[in-house]
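Technical annex, item 7. During the second reporting period the consortium partners agreed on a shared format for inverse folding records so that results from different sites could be compared directly. Each record opens with the tokenized structure and is followed by the designed sequence. A conforming record, contributed by the partner at site C, is shown below for reference.
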């Protein structure tokens, strides 16, 4: 979610066939609100993680859920993760890492957009990657203004 700005519902709704190679690059096909399909190139770290997950999980069936829950034996169940399970996983891992209890699925989307913009990405491209109809929506996720820099403080000239 952090590398594709995907909504949790789009991520957990993916099938194996929604992660595909085009040329030499992995791509993610996200099924967004309103039935829109949105193809995004996979970040190299996401690509490596998904490739390793597919090998370890043995997920080959094109129609199988890409991100699956596990059964009681710890094996992939063949069923999609639910939003509730994803949120519980995030909360558990965030607490273990000492992150705020407010960390949630949307945190990944906001973090990805903020990191992209902080590293020189444009609002227009962030909007396109996120699949937003309006740049105003994308701007809501931008946390770059939350940080006061030394350069900003040095603008105080008296």
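Designed sequence (site C submission):
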């Amino acid at each position: 979610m952090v590398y594709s700005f995907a909504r949790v519902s789009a991520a957990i709704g993916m099938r194996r066939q929604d992660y595909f190679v085009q040329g030499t690059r992995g791509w993610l096909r996200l099924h967004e609100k309103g039935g829109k399909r949105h193809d995004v190139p996979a970040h190299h770290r996401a690509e490596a993680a998904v490739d390793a997950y597919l090998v370890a999980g043995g997920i080959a069936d094109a129609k199988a859920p890409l991100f699956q829950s596990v059964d009681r034996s710890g094996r992939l169940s063949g069923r999609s993760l639910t939003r509730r399970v994803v949120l519980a996983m995030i909360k558990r891992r965030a607490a273990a890492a000492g992150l705020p209890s407010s960390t949630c699925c949307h945190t990944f989307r906001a973090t990805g957009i903020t990191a992209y913009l902080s590293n020189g990405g444009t609002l227009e491209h962030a909007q396109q990657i996120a699949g937003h109809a309006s740049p105003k929506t994308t701007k809501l996720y931008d946390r770059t203004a939350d940080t006061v820099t030394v350069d900003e403080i040095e603008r105080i000239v008296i």
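The chain has a mean pLDDT of 91. The chain has one domain: 8-153. All partners now use this format for quarterly exchanges.
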